[in-house]
Amino acid sequence: MPVAELRPETHPDFELEKEHLSGTVAAMIRQIEFWEDRDRQMGADLETSIILGDQAEEFAAMLSPHVHQPYFGSLKVRVAGREQTLYVGKHGFRDVKGPHTVVSWDSEVGSLFYSQALGWTPRRGSAGVIRRRRQLDVSQKTLLRVTDLYDDEQGGDTGGREEVLLRRLQEGSTAGMRDVVETLQPEQNDAMRHPAGVPVIIQGAAGSGKTTIGFHRLAWMTNADRGAHRARPEACMVLMPNRVLATYAARILPELGIERVVVTTPETWATGLLGLEKLEVTDRTLSLLLTDRDNTRRALAWRKAKLLGDARMLDVVRTHLWNRFNAALAGQGLREAVALRGREDQVFTLDDAALAGLLRDVFAADPLDGYRAGMRRAIEALALSTLRVPEDEEASVRRQLATPLTTLLGRIFATTTPITEARRLLGSPAELAASGLLTDREIALLGTDPLSGIPTPRRAHADVTELPLMLAVQAFTGGIGRLDGRTLEPFDHVVLDEAQDYSPLLYALLGRATRPGHITALGDMNQGMHGYKGPSSWEAVQAQLPGAQVLTLGRTYRSTRQITELGARIAATYNRAAAVQGVDRDGAEVQRYTAPAGPDGELPLIARAVKDAQAAGHANIAIVTRRGVDAERMAEALREFDTDAQPITTQEHRFRGGVVILPVNLAKGLEFSAAIVASANADTYDESTEYERRLLYVSASRALHWLALVSTGELHPLIA
């Protein structure tokens, strides 16, 4: 039945809920005061008392922010003939002296608030039945609204979930990603709670909440209920496509109660792992695709970039290193006198044949920290065994062997650095052919240089398409994973945003760097702006992440019906998005601004569109251009038309809200209350090229409430 049109305070249970809220706030404050009172945190001795006091202060600090909004929903359940009401909040709280306990949203019980299931089977005890789900809007310790989502006494589903969702979606955008704990939809909740320890790929259209769900899944993974699969926040990593989006998104994690998660870009993570933080990373393929009109050259650059990220390159690199290291072993050996207590000095000897056998074993073992560290351990273990070293003297023997071992390993491995070795491999057709995995045509393609016309930096640099190959060299030689002090260990969990832009080779490497089953990939094949370095299908990703499942979010929540329909029309021209369903949220018609070409071009139109958006009540407004150079030039020129727009043209810029102007590749992943697509015509977005239509789709899907299309001359045929 439809939700009754009632003022918030006229809900029949409003006063009862108001009283319960007051009691919960009071109970939380009492508990915080108890924790903060050091005199009441006494142990058997001074040291124990200090520890107890410090722990209590931490508990108080964690609970304090939630006093202003203790919970946002409730569940009435019947278990074994007995009814009880459970309150659901962002932070669990146990009221030991009363009925004001709160269960956390990321607990198993909390999941019942979001699902459509009516049965409840706890880990221990009898099965139960959900009798009512209720949304409670609370702010600053004040109850604002009560909305029933499901009530078996009112006929079941009340339509309240959609009402609450629409209310939230009508809010303006912010300068950071939204926390959706209060309004997770059932399909989003199912994706977020996909079984721990199983890799998952979440496919969803623009605005379906993929990135937000990924962050919430990470918070869910840190809950103690995950058992052996529980992730430590400091051992987790989130990879975002650029630093603008990383900064925008990272603000949500503390709101979800997790700190110290590494939120970075693939390039920053890779250069840090390589120890080359000052290396400048370019994307010359993207520069070519955005600026060059020669489709033959663009196609060649695309094909070469795809091949560089092919998963087969992992074994191409492995074969190359096997040949390199075996060649380096020729004539090498080790002969070292070792002092042992109560015995004459023992001589430990290895010739190149023995070294080759050890290298074969190390390659077979494929250690996480790389062949060099694995070879050191293998030689040390052989020495300890051969010399029959007592356990209490093992450390002494390792110290005695340390210098000669370092010298030997240096002769075998030292000339193999990730950058030089990756480029040496690419420059050698014979080495590329050694694995037998690449065809003659593919080897010839890797020898071409379609990017010769794109400038390179004067300082040391690497292209983004080369980085996975360099990481492969690093993974095999020096290891790959998370550094904890001097120890390399797998990440507990990794979340990949814009997952359609990560190469199969990079997926293979991330699979090595992470606990098995602990990768969450979020993406949309329709938004594959960087398809030259991404997979052709999710099946290519599943091949690198054994057991990975693909979940599809079939609904988009970002935009109004008018904006969603426009985006679906563009995406339908290159497949896959036609079935996406938007929220039935009505809004302003898409605005179209056109004029004949004039001396100022489209600047007067853009300035007018900005003022119209502001007049409609929108504060966060984006002007989306196709290229960074267009954004820089336009930001300066718009000042002549009394329009001030902050340019975001590099990853160093931050989105702080207000009116901004940025290229489509940096706008991707962000959302704004209003968006204006500049130069929305076929001259800018070539109708005959799928890549250009993808760019247009991304540009037109940034707005929550208000979208404008601007062009001198005719608009693009897909949006006219």
From TrEMBL:
Annotated Pfam families: UvrD_C_2
Domain UvrD-like helicase ATP-binding per the UniProt entry, residue ranges: 183-560
Coiled coil: none
Residues binding ATP: 204-211
Record's keyword annotation contains Nucleotide-binding: yes
GO terms, biological process: recombinational repair
Classification via InterPro entries: DNA_helicase_UvrD/REP, P-loop_NTPase, UvrD-like_ATP-bd, UvrD-like_helicase_C
Protein name: UvrD-like helicase ATP-binding domain-containing protein
Organism: Deinococcus arenae
